Amino acid sequence: EQGSTSKAGGLAWFRLQCDKPLPDGPGLKDLPMGHVFPQSGLASFSTNLDDTRKSAMLSFRSSPYGSTSHAIANQNAFNTFWNGQSLFYSSGHHTSFTDIHGVYCHRATRAHNTILVNGMGQRIGTEGYGWIPRYYVSDNISYVAGDASNAYGKVISPLWLLRGEQSNLEFSPENGWDDTGLKIFRRHIVTLGKSGYSFIYDELEAEEPVTWSYLLHTVTNPMNVDKTREYVHIRATSKDGASDAYLFSSGTLETDTTSRFFVPAVNWLRADEKGHFAPYPNHWHFTATSDKQKVYRFATIVYTHAKDNDAENAQAAPRKLKDGSIQIGNWNIKANISTAGKPSFEVRNTRKDCDASVSYKDYGATVIHDNGKKTELKDEVPELEI
Predict the structure, then answer these.
(1) Taking a C-beta distance cutoff of 8 angstroms, is the pair 370, 140 a contact?
(2) Topology of the domain comprising 8-320
(3) d(CA 196, CA 201)
(4) pTM assigned to the model
(5) What is the residue-level pLDDT of the chain in tens, covering all 386 positions?
(6) Residue 371: φ, ψ to 5°
(7) How far apart are CA 330 and CA 195, in angstroms?
(8) Burial degree of 225 (CB within 10 A; 0-12, 13-18, 19+)
(9) Where does the Heparinase II/III-like C-terminal domain lie (predicted)?
(10) Do 210 and 180 form a contact (C-beta atoms < 8 A)?
(11) What are residue 322's phi and psi, to 5 degrees?
(12) Nearest Cα to 74, choosing from 62, 57, 86?
């Protein structure tokens, strides 16, 4: 239709006629440091929105819409950034919708910073869903919990089974899809004010003993991995920033780091103006795998900061105290990472002038204290528009 604004020319004419200034409003510095969208299953936290060049950011996804269409099987996965540059980040290349590398190494769970159960990932399709049952946001302390307990298993979507058949894709155990007997996978994330620290607690349970694999990826530089008696230290770097992950677990972990994809990335689609198909670079993948256990727990402290800050100094790296708790800066963390007992953790600011804490115990409410205010969080099912 002539003059339609659905056409490029119509949109240009509309813009010429409606050259109006944007309304005045508060700037980025006046926004809260985080926001959670439970309806879509997304959360994001930034320490300095007024100057993003000096901002540590953490994003998180656990979506009730699953991994169909352009979504990926990354329920309960997180990413970290400094100055907008990716650090721990989802891996793989999207060549086409059903390219073998795109499905096995970009859409599949193995490509993301989450968990594999017995080496198996999350379903492709709306059936492989997660959700965000609890969250709290403030500048003193923030919290989000994701539940991916229903995300794992065989691919059963008729649409994706048909696409697999048409594209010679096999959603088999050899390629990362099978029943796992997973009962619980809840990931709790606490951002410790604007310090750049985040605490991540994974509660995991299956019907039978299984292996639990903790995944991290980088796409810019290789990771540095160092094992100590207390934790595994994994460092991601970019041009200006770094993320240091200190991984605590229920038992001894078998770790592996590789720069190879499960299936090679072949650029057969995108050529430049000279007809040259530039090769896709490899990414880096870290896996820490447990022995077989019905119940398992991971606790991770992630510190995202400018690259010139040394995260190995006494203030930045976690210190184990005599009572078994962990001290990082002005924060104290107690967490049950044993396979025995109920899941629990407490994160508390130790400064006398700062009332900020998050605690969780026995599958009960999450209790938050923030500047004299007490909040108890219980599961709330988001309202969905379907």
Answers:
(1) yes
(2) Beta-galactosidase; Chain A, domain 5 (2.70.98)
(3) 17
(4) 0.93
(5) 454 555 666 677 887 888 788 788 888 888 999 999 999 999 999 999 999 999 999 999 999 999 999 999 999 999 999 999 999 999 999 999 999 999 999 999 999 999 999 999 999 999 999 999 999 999 999 999 999 999 999 999 999 999 999 999 999 999 999 999 999 999 999 999 999 999 999 999 999 999 999 999 999 999 999 999 999 999 999 999 999 999 999 999 999 999 999 999 999 999 999 999 999 999 999 999 999 999 999 999 999 999 986 544 446 799 999 999 999 999 999 999 999 999 999 999 999 999 999 999 999 999 999 999 999 999 999 988 76
(6) 55, 50
(7) 9
(8) middle
(9) 32-259
(10) yes
(11) -60, -30
(12) 62
What is the residue whose two structure tokens read 């919290």?
143
Name every residue whose Cβ is closer than 8 Å to that of residue 8 and which is 6 or more positions away in sequence: none
Hunting for tokens 């968990």 — which residue is that?
115
